[in-house]
Amino acid sequence: MHDPSYAKWSRLAFHEAGKVYTLLDYRYIGKSTVAPGVVQQQFRFWVKKNGTEFPLIVSIRYDPVTEKVFTILMEQENRGTLRIL
């Protein structure tokens, strides 16, 4: 079975988010170019912390040639900005 192109990045997102939250579910949002030489992979997790469940967006920005990671950003998705995926 062939891994999707984002498999490496989803494993990294799982690893980083799992350090802080209990992971319940996730969905791949997509890939985008945010600047010359900077690509972003985004994932939406449903997580739990301190008894509260909420959506969390994990964004990984990296160099598409070397695959060097620039940033990993985790932010709670606000109720007003929830997207149906």
Automatic annotation (TrEMBL):
InterPro entries attached to this UniProt entry: DUF3889
Pfam family, one: DUF3889
Name the UniProt record assigns to this protein: DUF3889 domain-containing protein
Naturally occurring in which organism (per UniProt): Paenibacillus oryzisoli
